[in-house]
Model the fold of this input.
Amino acid sequence: MTEKPTMIAFQDVHKYYGDYHALRGITATIKAGEFFSLLGPSGCGKTTLLRTIAGFEGISSGAVMIDGRNMAGVPANQRPTNMVFQSYAIFPHLTVGENVGFGLRRAGLTKDALAARVGEALDMVGLKGYGARAAHALSGGQRQRVALARALILKPKVLLLDEPLSALDKKMREQMQVELIRLQRQVGITFILVTHDQEEALVMSDRIAVMFEGEIAQLADPETLYRRPNSRKVADFIGTMNFLPASILSETGGKLEVEAQGFGKVTLEAEQAPGAASGEGAAVGFRPETLTILFEGQTATDRESMATIEEVVYYGDMTYYDVRLDGTEKPIRISMRNVFGRPVLDIGARTRVAWSPGALVLFR
Done:
């Protein structure tokens, strides 16, 4: 596969607000045609970084490059970018078509050419025929589509999305996630999404930059972030991760011998310890779906441990069990799909738990 060219490059970007260090040496690249997400908790710097691309925020040092050009001194309205804001910023007194075509009002287009561009943009976001409708009469999902059409009609090289789905209800948000993925593939331009929603980032992104305190903690594809987080902090932020204390017995030939509480001695590959030593003490991490409760007649394909059920949370399609493995100090969470004929266990029940060393990640 041909390597995609770089569309955005951050070169040691720093941003200060007085004494507050908002961005701390950001160095990263975003490829042309990539769906890229900036993910992190509130106040981590992700929106500030997005606004440096748009030109709404200056930087204190470093460089922001777009399509090979340094953006120093280039105002927002001259950058090949457009932004969809969290609030959508729809003009309620205008029609849908007038909202979508607002940015082209000074482009010198004929009335027919403008109508054609508006119609094309509305069709792109699934609002064909909505041009004459009053903007104030739209649902939240429809307003979001109008905001997208208004941004895309200007044909930017980069579309910036500042938490555009946060105001929608769960069902509409999930629907719009799929719509945005489809739209990005259709138009083929670079999408950069800011979100604090881990699931949203995992579902939509080609790559994700996880940010904490003005720095990128890890930049990787969704599967790598989920399966091989490079620190306990990233692991704890992305989805649900169990942790159990561990000690490293030896490290030779690309393998680590580890004593893990509840699991005993296990051998891990070097790739299962992707992060540098943190000085916080070693622990093994593992996702709830990587362990399996064994019911009567079932046998483990790899390892097996005894445990006691301490809590049961039934979700219909899934049951989440908090179980305490023998020899451990705190419970871990296991998720089990409720397939036909599988019972839901009671609190206090003794059970066997199947697991594999390959599912463990070592943090040290």
